[in-house]
Write a structure and sequence with these properties.
heterodimer, A: about 110 residues, mainly beta, six-stranded mixed beta sheet, five-stranded antiparallel beta sheet, about 55% strand, B: about 120 residues, four-stranded antiparallel beta sheet, about 0% helix
C-alpha cells in the first residue's frame, strides 16, 4: 500500500481567485501520478496522467506539475469559477499496476 | 467514450444477507477493474484488483471470503458482500482500466450500502 497525502483537506476561495493544492507520494516504485475531479453525485473524472519528472500539463485554467524525485505534485486552478467546486483527488500508480488515492482536497468556490 | 456503469447506486439490506454490486464497462473492454471502498472523510481505499478470467488480488486486510469478486467477462466485474453486517456499510466504487502507459481510470458512480 502506498501512502498518498493531499493538502489542504478543504479550501474555500472567492470566485476569480487562483489556488493550488499538493499531493505527496512515495517516490520509490513510482510509475504515474493521476489527478481526478470528483463532483457531487458524479463519478470521478480524470484530469491528468503524469509520468515524467518535471512534467507539466494544462487543461484550460487547470494545470499540474510533477516532481518524482521528491514525490510531490501540485494542481493549480487559475481564476476559480463556481463550477470548479469539487473534490480533487490524486492517485499514485505503482509498478504493480495498483492505484492508491489521497484523501482529496475539497474545493468550494464562492460566487 | 469509456463509460462505466455501476449499480445499484444505493442499497439497504438486513444484517446477514448478501449484496451484489455490478460494474460494467459499456463501450470498451476492461481487462482490469479495481474495487474501492470509502469511509467518511477518508480516501478511496483499494480493496482488490480484478483481472478478467483470473482470481482477484486482494489488498492486505481485505477478507476475500467476505468480499467476493468475479470478473467473468471483459465488460463485467461483480463485488458480492457476503453476510453483510452494519460495519460493512460504506461507499463502494469500481473503476476500469485500459492497459496503457498513460491510461486513466474510468469510474462508476458508486454504491452506497447501508446494512441495518
Amino acid at each position: 500500500i502506498l501512502n498518498v497525502e493531499q493538502s489542504p483537506q478543504s479550501l474555500h476561495v472567492q470566485e476569480g481567485d487562483s489556488t493550488n493544492f499538493t499531493c505527496s507520494f512515495p517516490s520509490s516504485n513510482f510509475y504515474a501520478l493521476h489527478w481526478y475531479r470528483w463532483e457531487t453525485a458524479k463519478s470521478p473524472e480524470a484530469l491528468f496522467v503524469m509520468t515524467l519528472n518535471g512534467d507539466e500539463k494544462k487543461k484550460g485554467r487547470i494545470s499540474a506539475t510533477l516532481n518524482t524525485k521528491e514525490g510531490y505534485s501540485y494542481l493549480y486552478i487559475k481564476g476559480s469559477q463556481p463550477e470548479d467546486s469539487a473534490t480533487y483527488l490524486c492517485a499514485s500508480r505503482g509498478t504493480g499496476n495498483q492505484f492508491y488515492f489521497g484523501t482529496g482536497t475539497s474545493l468550494t468556490v464562492i460566487p | 467514450g469509456a463509460v462505466v456503469s455501476q449499480h445499484p447506486s444505493r442499497v439497504i439490506c438486513k444484517s446477514g444477507t448478501s449484496v451484489k454490486i455490478e460494474c460494467r464497462s459499456l463501450d470498451f473492454q476492461a481487462t482490469t477493474m479495481f474495487w474501492y471502498r470509502q469511509f467518511p472523510k477518508q480516501s478511496l481505499m483499494l480493496m482488490a484488483t480484478s483481472n478478467e478470467g483470473s482470481k482477484a488480488t486482494y489488498e492486505q486486510g481485505v477478507e476475500k471470503d467476505k468480499f467476493l469478486i468475479n470478473h467473468a467477462s471483459l465488460t463485467l466485474s461483480t463485488l458480492t458482500v457476503t453476510s453483510a453486517h452494519p460495519e460493512d456499510s460504506s461507499f463502494y466504487i469500481c473503476s476500469a482500466f485500459l492497459r496503457g502507459y498513460n491510461s486513466p481510470l474510468h469510474f462508476g458512480n458508486g454504491t452506497r450500502l447501508t446494512v441495518t
